[in-house]
Amino acid sequence: MKYETRLDTAVSIVSYIALQAEPFRGHDESETSLNKGNFLEFLDWYKLRNEEVRQAYIGCPKNVKMTSRITFNILTLMFHY
User: Fold this and answer.
1) How many CA atoms lie within 13 Å of 21's alpha carbon, on the beta-carbon side?
2) What is the C-alpha separation between 49 and 23, in angstroms, rounded?
3) Residues 40, 29: contact at Cβ < 8 Å?
4) Residue 28 region, left (φ>0) first, then alpha (ψ -120 to 50), else beta?
5) Can you say whether the dihedral through the CA atoms of 71, 18, 29, 50 is positive or negative?
6) Helix 2-20 vs helix 69-80: angle between axes, to the nearest 10 degrees?
7) Tens place of pLDDT for every residue, the chain, 81 residues?
8) Distances from the Cα of 65 to the Cα of 3, 32, 52, 58, 80, angstroms
9) Domain ranges of the chain
10) Predicted pLDDT at 7
């Protein structure tokens, strides 16, 4: 269930940013960056406001967070076709 929550969240954020025609990624996406890019900033904002999403991201391995560049590229390609 947590994986589905992470996937749904990522797809929702990508679709919103795509509709706004905003850039997705930032130059510095590290945890300590002040501006990680629209996608990661939106995800952090959403986790603060939605308990189910926050719980889905707590303790999950980095490779299933739906934040990797490969996953992101797959999601954005879905909206181009």
Assistant:
1) 0
2) 23
3) yes
4) beta
5) negative
6) 60
7) 788 999 899 889 888 888 888 877 776 667 777 778 888 889 999 999 999 999 998 988 776 777 766 666 676 676 665
8) 8, 18, 14, 10, 22
9) 2-80
10) 86
Both tokens of 66, joined, read 């739906």
Nearest residue to 17 (alpha-carbon basis) of 48, 50, 40: 40
Residues in the chain: 81
pTM: 0.74
- Both tokens of residue 19? 């509709």
Contact present, 69 and 24 (Cβ < 8 Å): no
- CA torsion angle 24 28 34 39 (round to 10): 20
- The two structure tokens encoding residue 63: 């490779």
Lookup result for tokens 């999601």:
75
